[in-house]
C-alpha cells in the first residue's frame, strides 16, 4: 500500500491518480497539511509531515509499504520563509526516513535540479555527480534529503530512491511557489489577459518537463527493480528553453499574446541553476527517455487547459 504525503500540490494530485491506476485506489492513501478542497480518488488523511508520531500512525494503521514523500516548500516560497522550509523539508524528510526504517517500507523523496548552485559546476549538461553548492534553502534542504536518504540506505538498508526533477509545467492552476512556475502561469495569463509580465529575463534557460511525462517517468522509476538501480539519486533532464522561446511558441497559437520581462528575486535563483542536464545514467539504468520540442510542449500544455479559460481566445 502506498502513502503519498504532500498530495495536494502540482505533482501530488496527478501522481495520486496515476498510482491509483497502477495499484488500485483501495491501496493508496493521500495525505497533506492543506485544507484546500481537491478531488482525490482515494482515502485522505490530514498530515503535517513535521509531526512524526502522526506520520507514523498513518503508515502503521494503513500498513503502508511504499512512502512517496512529496511534501516540501519550493524555492521561491522557501526564500520568503526559510525557517518553514527547513522544518518541512528537513524534519519532514527525517521523519519519513525514520518511519521507513522502522516499518521496513520503501521510500521515494523527489529531489530537484535546485541541488546545483553557485559557480563551481558545469551549467550545461550538468552531470549527476558534480559539486553541490546550492544557494537557496530549498536546494540546501534537498541536498540534505539526498544525502541522508543515501545514508539510511547504506547504514540501515532502507530502499530510498530519488529523482532530481527539472521544473515541472502543468495545464492546471496551482500555487506558483517555484522559480520555474512562470512556465505554467504564462499560459493562464496568455488566455485570460492576453499579456504576461515574466519574473525571469528572456534568455534564462532552464530544464523543464511536462507534468504527464514527469508522472510517467516517476511511475517507471517507482516500479524499477532496486537491483537495476546503480545509485540512489538520478538526474532527469527534460527539455531546456527560456521564457522568450516559450513565449514565441505560445504566440504561434495565440498571435496577439504580449510578454514583458521584469526579473525579480527569482532571477538570481534561476541564474544559480543548470541550464541543461545530463540524465544519461537514468537512460542507462531505468530506461528513461524524453524527446520533445518547445512547440510540442506548448501545444500539449494549451490543449490540456480547461476550456473555461479559453473563452476570450
Ligand atoms: P507543491 O508546492 O505544488 O505541493 C507541495 C504540497 O506539499 C502541497 O500540497 C502542500 O500543502 C504540501 N505540504 C507543505 N507542507 C506540508 C507539511 N508540513 N505537511 C504535509 N504536506 C505539506 O509542490 P510540487 O510541485 O507538487 O512538488 C512536490 C515535490 O516535487 C517536492 O518535494 C518538490 O521539491 C519536488 N519537485 C518539484 C518540482 C516542480 O517543478 N514542481 C521540481 C523539482 C522537484
Ligand atoms: C522550483 N519548480 O522552482 C521548483 C523546482 C526545478 C526547480 O524544484 O522551486
Automatic annotation (TrEMBL):
Domain of life: Eukaryota
Domain NAD-dependent epimerase/dehydratase: 2-237
Pfam families, alphabetized: Epimerase
A GO MF label: L-threonine 3-dehydrogenase activity
Example GO biological process: L-threonine catabolic process
InterPro entries the UniProt entry points to: Epimerase_deHydtase, NAD(P)-bd_dom_sf, NAD(P)_epim/dehydratase
Family, as annotated: Belongs to the NAD(P)-dependent epimerase/dehydratase family.
Listed name of the protein: NAD-dependent epimerase/dehydratase domain-containing protein
Species name: Halteria grandinella
